[in-house]
Write a structure and sequence with these properties.
Structural class of chain A: alpha+beta
Number of domains of chain B: 2
Shape of chain A: globular
CATH topology of the largest domain in chain A: Uridine Diphospho-n-acetylenolpyruvylglucosamine Reductase, domain 3
Oligomer: heterodimer
Order of helices and strands of chain A: HEHEHEEEHHHHHHEEEEEEEEEHHH
Strand content of chain B: 15-25%
Radius of gyration of chain B: 15 Å
Strand order of the largest sheet of chain A: 4-5-10-6-7
CATH class of the largest domain in chain B: Alpha Beta
Largest interface: A-B, 37 and 35 residues
Shape of chain B: globular
Distance between the termini of chain A: 63 Å
CATH architecture of the largest domain in chain A: 2-Layer Sandwich
Largest sheet of chain B: 5 strands, mixed
Number of helices of chain A: 12
CATH superfamily of the largest domain in chain B: Beta-grasp domain
Largest sheet of chain A: 5 strands, antiparallel
Number of strands of chain B: 5
Helix content of chain B: 25-40%
Number of strands of chain A: 14
Order of helices and strands of chain B: EEHEEEHHHH
Distance between the termini of chain B: 45 Å
Chain lengths: ~300, ~160
């Protein structure tokens, strides 16, 4: 320890690091009301930090330079998972890892469980939150496709208002949501999927830790060989995560034959609008989306057969 | 400056931090806890892993101001009566260290795993280590060391 005292700390701090290069004011409200008051006052000058696993990286890379950072981690009233007869409610600061460990999630929402388990590392899942993952509005957000097929609803609160936003209406563009500048998402409600339905999540990444090149969540409910209910959502293939309604409408009340499967693959390929970026080309994403649609539907069919 | 008070390796620490100071910088440069390593700075490599309320997190992604009132453990906190922790012993015995840069983070991740799962399978160890990169590629020895540590802990208690 004694030799450490000679180190010039100022020098080290500037050397070979990206300390956060942004000057900002830090707020740590203790209650939701305090937080909403702050947002009402600061408006777009403030960024909310739940887990911080996206925002801190963005601030280090100067992609975001907020004047004010409002931390939610002291607001205990937002740290809850409640289960009732309709579904599961998850507060804004519940960690991804905690949701993943919840028995009801593994048993009733397998697509969400698979998505959570596949995300980044355990360290990141111990910090990050699902509400943060959704509000960051990355087209590749892994929890988005499962929440889309389960028809999740977000509760948005501002100082004077509260409203429910269906998740399908929440994403507007990369990083853009339906949220107003003084609003905070306080809760995600996920209703139980229909009895005897099956759901699954699949994704393609380069290595485990990477962001998804393409991700998909599918829910099916069969009546005999006929598909009674079908929901398909994809991530990283358009400016926002999205439901593929046309494919769903086509498959509804039909059997899952090889021919129908081929048509659905073509509909999906037409409906998505992938881009070429560092992770994949547009062509590759389209081809892989087709494969994933088939794989996910076949997995649901297998589960139905094995029931 | 923001006043914070938290528990570091069993001792209470009171200090002042800038809003932009990360937990990593607070530990290394203000408190001189140098086992915590600076790696990728974006939460991918795990070299900066610390235990926050017993759970592994990336200290490079946490604003120091946010650990107010929390519990932090680093490798320095694993010593008991100046004796090494069984995981540390196992890492030495199994040569699970090559350059050593990832080691403190790996040991803390291993501790968090063994705390909740005293008998991990190899698959569970690999899953737990998914956020700790070892660029020397000593994973084989690391896994053996964690298996050995699990035995050591069981026979001692």
């Amino acid at each position: 320890m004694s030799q450490n005292k000679n180190i010039n700390l100022g020098y080290i701090n500037l050397f070979n690091t990206h300390i956060i290069p942004v000057k900002f004011n830090y707020h740590a409200p203790q209650t939701l009301e305090e937080a909403l008051n702050l947002l009402n006052k600061l408006k777009d000058k403030a960024r909310v930090i739940a887990g911080g696993t996206d925002l801190i990286v963005d601030m280090k890379l100067r992609r975001k330079e907020p004047e004010h950072v409002v931390s939610l981690n002291k607001i205990r009233e937002l740290d809850y998972i409640t289960v009732d007869s309709l579904g599961v409610k998850i507060g804004a600061i519940v960690k991804l890892r905690k949701i993943e460990k919840e028995k009801i999630i593994r048993e009733r929402f397998p697509a969400l469980y698979e998505a959570l388990k596949s995300m980044a590392s355990i360290q990141v899942r111990n910090m990050g939150t699902m509400v943060g993952n959704i509000c960051n509005a990355s087209p590749a957000a892994d929890t988005a496709p499962p929440l889309l097929i389960y028809n999740a609803t977000l509760t948005a609160k501002s100082l004077n208002n509260e409203r429910k936003i269906p998740i399908e209406e929440f994403f507007k563009a990369p990083g853009k949501t339906a949220l107003k500048e003084d609003e905070l998402v306080t809760e995600i409600f996920i209703p139980y999927p229909p009895q005897d339905s099956h759901s699954t999540f699949l994704k393609i990444t380069r290595v485990g830790m990477d962001l998804s090149k393409v991700s998909i969540a599918v829910l099916t409910k069969f009546n005999g060989s006929i598909i009674e209910d079908i929901r398909i959502a994809l991530g990283a293939v358009a400016p926002t995560p999205l439901r593929i309604r046309r494919a769903e409408e086509f498959l509804k009340n039909k059997p899952l034959t090889e021919e129908n499967l081929k048509i659905v693959q073509e509909i999906v390929a037409k409906e998505i609008k992938p881009i070429t970026d560092v992770r994949s080309t547009e062509w590759y994403r389209r081809e892989v989306a087709k494969v994933l649609v088939k794989d996910a539907l076949m997995k649901c069919l297998e589960e139905e057969g094995g029931r | 400056m923001i006043k914070i008070k938290f528990n570091l390796n069993g001792r209470s620490v009171e200090t002042e931090v800038k809003p932009s100071t990360t937990l990593l910088d607070l530990l290394r440069y203000q408190l001189r806890i140098t086992s915590v390593k600076r790696g990728c700075e974006v939460g991918e490599c795990g070299a900066c892993t610390v235990l926050l309320d017993g759970k592994p997190v990336n200290s490079c992604l946490i604003l120091a101001a946010r650990v107010d009132g929390r519990n932090i453990v680093t490798v320095e906190g694993l010593l008991k009566d100046s004796k090494l922790h069984p995981i540390q012993e196992a890492f030495i015995e199994e040569f699970a260290v090559q350059c050593g840069y990832c080691t403190p983070g790996v040991i803390l991740t291993a501790k968090a795993l063994l705390d909740i799962n005293p008998n991990p399978t190899i698959a569970e160890i690999k899953d737990a280590l998914s956020g700790n990169l070892c660029r020397c590629g000593a994973y084989h020895q690391i896994i053996n060391a964690i298996l050995k540590a699990s035995e050591k802990i069981k026979t001692r208690t």
